[in-house]
Every structure is written in structure tokens, then in C-alpha cells.
UniProtKB/TrEMBL annotation:
Annotated GO MF terms: 4 iron, 4 sulfur cluster binding; dinitrosyl-iron complex binding; DNA binding; metal ion binding; protein-disulfide reductase [NAD(P)H] activity
Designated gene of the protein: whiD1
Region (Disordered): 1-37
Subcellular location: Cytoplasm
Taxonomic source organism: Streptomyces lavendulae subsp. lavendulae
Entry note: cofactor: Binds 1 [4Fe-4S] cluster per subunit. Following nitrosylation of the [4Fe-4S] cluster binds 1 [4Fe-8(NO)] cluster per subunit.
Name this polypeptide is given: Transcriptional regulator WhiB
Protein residues bound to [4Fe-4S] cluster: C44, C74, C77, C83
Keywords: 4Fe-4S, Cytoplasm, Disulfide bond, DNA-binding, Iron, Iron-sulfur, Metal-binding, Transcription, Transcription regulation
HAMAP family membership: WhiB (MF_01479)
């Protein structure tokens, strides 16, 4: 059935699903495993994606303002920690994830690497000279 040109694609899809006979089950969209269950609860799914990722050649002042606005969204998100860990484990090279910019995530990853190196047995202690 043709839809008026002003009708959104989403509204057309909803009408199409509603027009199906009741005996036909609605198709299930499988969850992507890499997203994990936290992804569905992310507050940013309801916000403008442009807030979290920089446009090309963005002026510094605009970038800083946009990143702060994105961090405010992250601050009220119930899955912020899971999102941050996802971004650190991937690692995600761009955008604001879990309240951290790409540069802030690089700092966290550097600290984690240094801490892990310090915890290794024998790390940071000079080798013992052989008696001879």
C-alpha cells in the first residue's frame, strides 16, 4: 500500500507491522553480542549522535563545548561504567564513551599499562648480578 510522501519511514514500518495478521509473529531482531546488555540502556541512544562524535575540522571551542555536553549526558546514564569499559577494551579511538573523550581514554589506558607493568613479578627491581 503506498504511503503519502510526508509520512516517515518509521511510521510506515509500524503500520506495515500492525497490518500483518495476528498469526504471523513479529520478527525478532537479535541483540549483537559485542554490544552487550548495557547498550540497550544507554541514555545516548536517545540523544543526537553528533553530540558524541566530532565533525571534521571542528573548532577547538566548539569541540570542548560539545564534549562537555556529551559528558553531561553520560553523567546521568545508568550504564556509564559499562560503556567506559567497553570503550577501553575495544579500544574506541573516537568520540565520548562512558564520560571520557578519546584523549582521556588514552591516559587511562596508559595508566593501566604502567600499573600492570609494576605489578608483574620482578618489574622495577634491578636484576641480581651473578656471583662469580
Amino acid at each position: 500500500m503506498p504511503h503519502p510522501p510526508h509520512q516517515s519511514l518509521q511510521a510506515a514500518a509500524v503500520q506495515s507491522l500492525q497490518a500483518r495478521p495476528a498469526a504471523v509473529p513479529k520478527p525478532r531482531v537479535p541483540a549483537r553480542e559485542e554490544d552487550g546488555p548495557w547498550h540497550a540502556e544507554a541514555v545516548c541512544r536517545r540523544d543526537e549522535a553528533g553530540l558524541f562524535f566530532a565533525p571534521s575540522k571542528e573548532p577547538t571551542a566548539a569541540r570542548l563545548a560539545r564534549e562537555e555536553a556529551a559528558k553531561r549526558v553520560c553523567a546521568r546514564c545508568p550504564v556509564m561504567v559499562a560503556c567506559r569499559e567497553h570503550a577501553l577494551l575495544q579500544p574506541e579511538p573516537y568520540g565520548v564513551w562512558g564520560g571520557l573523550t578519546a584523549a582521556e581514554r588514552r591516559v587511562v589506558l596508559g595508566r593501566r599499562r604502567r600499573r600492570a607493568a609494576e605489578l608483574l613479578p620482578g618489574a622495577g627491581t634491578p636484576p641480581i648480578a651473578a656471583a662469580g
